[in-house]
Specification:
- With about 325 residues, this protein is of the alpha/beta class.
- It folds into two domains: about 150 residues, Distorted Sandwich (Spo0b-associated Gtp-binding Protein, Chain: A); about 170 residues, 3-Layer(aba) Sandwich (Rossmann fold).
- About 20% of the residues lie in helices and about 25% in strands.
- The chain is built from six helices and 14 strands.
- The strands form three sheets. A six-stranded mixed sheet has the order 10-11-9-12-13-14, sandwiched between helices.
- α5 links the parallel β13 and β14.
- It starts with 5 loop residues before the first strand and ends with a helix.
- About 40% of the residues are buried.
Length: about 325
C-alpha cells in the first residue's frame, strides 16, 4: 500500500429540498386548501476516525465529496426525505486543517470518533406552512437552503510512542527491523526511506510503537532533501531516539544540524525527551568509539548510548531506555 500523509479535498453538504405548492383536490370538496409539504434537510458531511487505516491514499483518487440533497416536498402534506449523510473515514491521528493551511479545525485522536464538519441545508417550507386566517390559499413555497461547502487539508500525524531521528543512512530502518517485525527497505544510499514506517517493539512484557521517518538533512526547513514535513509524524511521540552514524567524521556537527532543524520546525518538538545513540559501533575500533562518544557527549551534554543495529548490539539497552518515557506518557 502506498503511503500518503496529506491531501486537499472539497466538501459540500446537501442542499435542502424545496417546499411544494399544492392544493387539496377532491370530489365534493370545493375549497380543499393548501397541502404542500416541506422539503427534506440536506445530508451532513461527517468525518470518522477508524483505527484500521494508516494512509490517506484514498484521497489521491477522489478529491470531491458531496452529501445527498434533501428531497422535495409533495402534495397531500408529504414532507421530503432527508438527504443521506456522507461519512468520510480517515486514519486516527488525522488533522483537519482549513484552506489557509494553518487553522486546525479538528484533530481526530480517538478511534471511531465522529465530527460533523458541514451541516446540510434546511428544507424549504411548503405552502401549507403559510396558511393563515386571512390568507387561506397561499401560493408561496420556499426553496431549500444551500449546504455548506469548503476546501480542507487532511494531514496525518502518526501516533507512535517513540520516534527515530537522524541523517539519511544513520541506521534508523536497520534499527527498526532489528527490534520489530517491520521490514522497511534498507540500502547503502541516502533517502532509502521515502515514507514513514511503523513497528511494534517488545521489551520487558511491554510493547511500544516506533516510527521511522525519512532522514532529515541540513536545510530541510528550506525544502532541501525531502524537506521537514515528515517531522510531524514524531510530534506526538513520548520520546525521540536520535541516531548518529558513528562512521561519520564530525558526529557532533551531525547532531547539532538535526537539533537546528528541530528548533526551526517546532520549538515544542525540540523540547521533547531525547535519547542520543552512537550507531554502527561494529564498524569502529575501540579507540574511535571512545573518541567519537566523547565528542558527541560534549555536543549533547549527556552521555550517548552505544549501539549497532546491524549486529543487534546494544538494541535491548536502548529499548529499555525508551520504555520509562513511554510508560510515563501513558499514565
Amino acid at each position: 500500500m502506498k503511503f500518503l500523509d496529506q491531501a486537499k479535498i472539497y466538501l459540500k453538504s446537501g442542499d435542502g429540498g424545496s417546499g411544494c405548492c399544492s392544493f387539496r383536490r377532491e370530489k365534493y370538496i370545493e375549497f380543499g386548501g393548501p397541502n404542500g409539504g416541506n422539503g427534506g434537510r440536506g445530508g451532513d458531511v461527517i468525518f470518522e476516525a477508524v483505527p484500521n487505516l494508516n494512509t490517506l491514499i484514498d484521497f489521491r483518487y477522489r478529491q470531491h465529496f458531496k452529501a445527498e440533497r434533501g428531497h422535495n416536498g409533495e402534495g397531500k402534506d408529504k414532507f421530503g426525505r432527508k438527504g443521506e449523510n456522507l461519512i468520510i473515514k480517515v486514519p486516527v491521528g488525522t488533522q483537519i486543517v482549513a484552506d489557509d493551511d494553518e487553522t486546525v479545525i479538528k484533530d481526530m485522536l480517538t478511534p471511531y470518533e465522529r465530527f460533523t464538519i458541514a451541516k446540510g441545508g434546511d428544507g424549504g417550507y411548503g405552502n401549507a406552512m403559510f396558511k393563515t386566517s386571512t390568507n387561506q390559499a397561499p401560493r408561496r413555497a420556499d426553496p431549500g437552503q444551500p449546504g455548506e461547502e469548503m476546501w480542507v487539508w487532511l494531514k496525518l500525524k502518526m501516533i507512535a510512542d517513540a520516534g527515530l531521528l537522524g541523517f539519511p543512512n544513520a541506521g534508523k530502518s536497520t534499527f527498526l527491523s532489528a527490534v520489530t517485525s517491520a521490514r522497511p527497505k534498507i540500502a547503502d544510499y541516502p533517502f532509502t526511506t521515502l515514507h514513514p514506517n511503523l513497528g511494534i517493539a517488545k521489551i520487558d512484557d511491554e510493547e511500544m510503537l516506533i516510527a521511522d521517518i525519512p532522514g532529515i538533512i541540513e536545510g530541510a526547513h528550506d525544502g532541501v532533501g525531502l524537506g521537514d514535513h515528515f517531522l510531524r509524524h514524531v510530534e506526538r511521540c513520548a520520546v525521540l531516539l536520535h541516531l548518529i552514524d558513528g562512521t561519520e567524521e564530525d558526529v557532533a556537527g551531525r547532531y547539532k544540524a538535526i537539533r537546528k532543524e528541530l528548533k526551526l520546525y517546532s520549538p515544542a518538538l525540540a523540547q521533547k525527551r531525547e535519547i542520543v545513540v552512537l550507531n554502527k559501533t561494529d564498524a569502529l575500533t575501540p579507540e574511535e568509539i571512545d573518541e567519537k562518544a566523547k565528542a558527541l557527549q560534549k555536543a549533547c551534554r549527556k552521555k550517548p548510548m552505544l549501539m549497532s543495529g546491524a549486529a543487534h548490539a546494544g538494541t535491548t539497552e536502548v529499548l529499555r531506555a525508551l520504555l520509562p518515557h513511554v510508560l510515563k506518557l501513558r499514565e
